[in-house]
Amino acid sequence: APPRLEVRDCIIIQLEILKSFVMIYAIREVNQRKPRVLPNFTIGYDIYDTCGDVDIAIRAALQLLKNQSDPQSCLVPENNTSAFSEPQTKVVIGERYSEVSTAVARILALSSVAQISHASTSEVLSKKYKFPSFLRTVPSDAHQTEGIVELVKEFNWKTVAIVGSDDEYGKYGSDRLEDHFTNANVCIEFMTILPGDFNQNSSLLPKLVEKINDSSAEAIILFTKDTYVRIIMKEAIKAKLNRTWIASDSWSTSSKISSLKDFGSAGQVFGFIFKRKEVPGFKDYVTSVFNGTTNSFIKHHLTRYKPCLNQSEENEEKNCSRTNTQQCLHPSCLATHLDQDESYSIYLAVQVIVEGLRRLLKCSNQQCERGPRFTALELTSEQVPFINERPSFSQVVPGSKY
Amino acid sequence: APPRLEVRDCIIIQLEILKSFVMIYAIREVNQRKPRVLPNFTIGYDIYDTCGDVDIAIRAALQLLKNQSDPQSCLVPENNTSAFSEPQTKVVIGERYSEVSTAVARILALSSVAQISHASTSEVLSKKYKFPSFLRTVPSDAHQTEGIVELVKEFNWKTVAIVGSDDEYGKYGSDRLEDHFTNANVCIEFMTILPGDFNQNSSLLPKLVEKINDSSAEAIILFTKDTYVRIIMKEAIKAKLNRTWIASDSWSTSSKISSLKDFGSAGQVFGFIFKRKEVPGFKDYVTSVFNGTTNSFIKHHLTRYKPCLNQSEENEEKNCSRTNTQQCLHPSCLATHLDQDESYSIYLAVQVIVEGLRRLLKCSNQQCERGPRFTALELTSEQVPFINERPSFSQVVPGSKY
């Protein structure tokens, strides 16, 4: 099994779990909204933690495809090898990493179950002939890579270095950057593709840090997942590299990076994120669940990662700036970080599903004309206009952020 | 679903099915050999036709992973989401295409079932952290691409063109060729990556043929699957391109290509194949099954694709040269084509499995010390020395072959 990130930092876990809270909140809001959006229907959900691991994600996908209404039924029925039985799960939200999303997409396509990722941006996922039931609420990296090149040209930088990784996100992203920079006559001093088993003990790590240190590149672009960036940045901080970095969306606002101590000594960062909006009503919801909730999933996690309810104002201030990652955030601090993460993309995924269901089931606010019997393929085939719009272009976050 | 090749040509089907015959023959030979190789054990098998399609192959893999001894058991047991139940299938031979092998490898890895491909050469499959239970009896394209560059240098060609495809075989292969040629100061006049939905109606096809026609490249390298090459070559023959082509292993001896009429007007071909040996005793076996067999699989196919038993000597001669692909080959002709295909790699895969079993079960020629209860992981973990040897280098087939 591939190495997994050891994350014991409380703030990181708190912020990651908040993403699940967003989905729960969005579904709850749809189920409770007045006038009703889906009269007579209630949306349910299962949550699986894939740990960002392909194997675990495939298992989870297979589990979801099982016809859950009949626990004895087999995934591949004996007398019907040509198709899966119709799964109870009609749509899947996720995964985060493109590598995991592609593996899951292959499985879900077998049953035509729609998959909506809130964060997987790899260009490869745009290929409909390979991933016919995959959708997403974030733009393809085709746009982000263009943006990075525009940024470099804007600053009139002549040489850059690229660090990618050997997965769907880092490989397609850095290949595309290479094309763009070559066309723009920007010199690529070096391009390093991290192997899929890269970790803090890789012999490559000290070599890479040395290479960056020796390099005259005016900007170092790290186009890879946040777990890898965290490993590199820890060393960059130690070595006080003091360079200019360009962050792809995966780590520009990742709590795994922003929670690193003394980040400033690594240098300054220009990060790309997608246009984000506040999830309407979510801040109030987060604050309210800390004062008591009936949701068992949220209850469970609040018990394990207790927010710091009894701290003084001074401590709150301190924690909001995330200087101590071992200590959990105050609820009011948690909320201030929400705008920077993937919350809105997750919220949007739920809205897309609801709009698809409204169209398929022919719902007004009073009633739905169709009953609950429909196939996953019917839902996947529904055209929801706003998911087909050209995505809003990514924007630059000032380097002063960190 | 991706477009599928329409193959009605009898010779092609005959030769493709012969590959299954090789596996059946090899297993039968192991079960019957005296002195016994696996005393008290009989190897069984299931054969699935994946049609080279990822979806069908994933379904087949899932079917194989089911604990077949208990048809009511589910793939993912209710109370055990951390692992699949131990499958009855302990090892899988295949797939042919690298793209399909990677998809299947992801699934089989979940149960640690060893997979031995007889034909998938993509470099990506060498990554153990991604494909921990994948093995193969053919060398990685790391070697073949080096060989192609050596060939070009040998002829002192200064410009080449590369046609790859957007799958694990064609993408990694052409990327690697690009690196090698750049290092060798050979000019790449153009490189075209065919999309995954490439077919004879693609608008890209006439453009590509025109591009090749206009190009001054001294050799056109087609590093993609035989089904795509067949589409391109049909047009190249029509347009009488008369160029020098370099064939990767996928099509250098493929019956899908060699059965094309008037191949010569497309030009001359230099093809790469892997060192091949005759499968000991297989020719006699093929001839004998035409005189009556008890194997139901072989019987079924012999009924559907009747060999031409009553033709005159003259006709036999004609058919051996494959000029008429609608007419089936005479059994004696079939046998003459066997050395050129993947037979030996398939035979070798069976031998590797047998050697692994002998070691795991601690067998002498008289008895095996262990009983039949072992896990897929135990077999996968067995070190079979000859599969770890550096593969024999590919060799050049003279262009005069076609």
UniProtKB/TrEMBL annotation, chains A, B:
Cited Pfam families: ANF_receptor
Cell location: Cell membrane
Chief location of this protein within or outside the cell: membrane
Membrane topology per record: Multi-pass membrane protein
Record keyword Hydrolase present: no
GO molecular function terms listed in the Swiss-Prot or TrEMBL record: G protein-coupled receptor activity
Keywords for the protein's UniProt record, in alphabetical order: Cell membrane, G-protein coupled receptor, Glycoprotein, Membrane, Receptor, Signal, Transducer, Transmembrane, Transmembrane helix
Signal peptide from the UniProt entry: none
Domain Receptor ligand binding region: 23-370
GO CC terms of this entry: plasma membrane
KW Repressor (keyword) present: no
Annotated protein name in UniProt: Receptor ligand binding region domain-containing protein
Classification lineage: Eukaryota, Metazoa, Chordata, Craniata, Vertebrata
